[in-house]
Amino acid sequence: MKQEKILIIGAGGQIGVELALALRNIYGTDNVVASDIREAHPLLKDAGPYAILNAMDGQAIHSLVKKEGITQIYLLAAVLSATGEKDPKRAWDINMNSLLQTLDLGVQEKLTKIYWPSSIAVFGPTTPTQNTPQQTIVEPTTVYGISKYTGELWCQYYNQRWGLDVRSMRYPGLISWKSEPGGGTTDYAVEIYHEALKHKAYTCFLSENTYLPMMYMDDAIRGTIELMEAPAEQMKTRMAYNLAAMSFSPKEIAEAIQKHIPDFTISYQPDFRQKIADGWPKSIDDSTAREHWGWKNNFDLDSMTADMLLHLKEKLAVGV
Ligand code: VAH
Q1: Cβ of 190 below 6 Å from ligand 1
Q2: Which CATH number goes with the domain that contains 207?
Q3: pLDDT digits (tens, 9 = 90+) for 42-99
């Protein structure tokens, strides 16, 4: 079987950094080319093949794919929900055109697989908010959500029309300590750990009872790789799979942190991101992913909080 060689576009982002590290552990460092429009993230610097690459530069990507003998692309570059609302046309352009050129490249160069992340942001205020099903009313009200659902439809089209093996999942909010979040509405759930350790206080930009679906990055990375390694016949849908792990509110994550840092305090100053969060589901039904390819989460709020604080204490060099 031909050696797989992977290109990650957007390897400097919250998911990209960790996916590059995890894929290199599996496929070998030299078989995973990390790329981003920015210089290498500290965890990727001098740690394997790296290219400065703009996700919108189709020509540069095509020549790198041919030069390196790339067989799979993970396209992670995207403008997330909160940033997208500040410049909707730019968000649409980047999120859609980077995908379409990658799908075309996949057909042209007969890539074995493409991964492109979607999000629970595809759902909107008219979607059932509890245990949101895999198939339901989908009327996103952010450009990010519109671009992600449209992208899912394009992925399905390229699979049905040209047999391209492109796979996707709807990530909830992701929490990580190795890499930084990138302008999303769920970024508070990462910031709160940093602020709890550094200042024992955090002002949250969402209100205290804003329930959102969330997941620890360890689960998200493992789930992504399990999806990509599942036999093609198990991919019974080519829309993105709902994925879930837990749901919590800012109040609940603060209480989980207070079990470790009793004098931690939280205050609330909702901003424009509150309206985005209010349009999203509170919990997700991921039974389709569990049935089709065996997905299951390992971390819950308490085990994630313990792991986050353990690693961040060292990373931030703070004691508590
Ligand atoms: C965002 N972190 O907040 C992303 C995610 C479900 C939210 O897609 O935009």
Answers
A1: no
A2: 3.90.25.10
A3: 999 999 999 999 999 999 999 999 999 999 999 999 999 999 999 999 999 999 999 9
Q: Which of 50, 74, 115, 144 is labelled catalytic?
A: 144
49 falls within a domain: yes
Number of structural domains (the chain) is: 2
pTM for this prediction: 0.97
239 found inside a domain: no
Range of the domain at 138: 6-172+217-233
- The model's pLDDT over 201-237, given as tens digits with 9 standing for 90+, comes to 999 999 999 999 999 999 999 999 999 999 999 999 9
Check pocket membership of 120 for ligand 1, CB cut-off 6 A.
yes
Is 270 found in the same domain as 142?
Answer: no
Atom of ligand 1 nearest to the CA of 148: 8
DSSP code of 12?
T
If asked whether residues 262 and 119 sit together in one domain, one would say no
CATH classification at residue 57: 3.40.50.720
Can you tell me which residue has the tokens 């004691």?
319
Q: How far is the CA of 109 from the centre of ligand 1 (A)?
A: 31
**Ligand 1 atom closest to Cα of 14?**
2
Question: What SS3 string covers 89-153?
Answer: HHHHHHHHHHHHHHHHHHHHCCCCEEECCEEHHHCCCCCCCCCECCCCCCCCCCHHHHHHHHHHH
Question: Does residue 1 lie in a domain region?
Answer: no
* Ligand 1 midpoint to CA 243 (Å): 13
Run of H or E including 50: strand 50-52
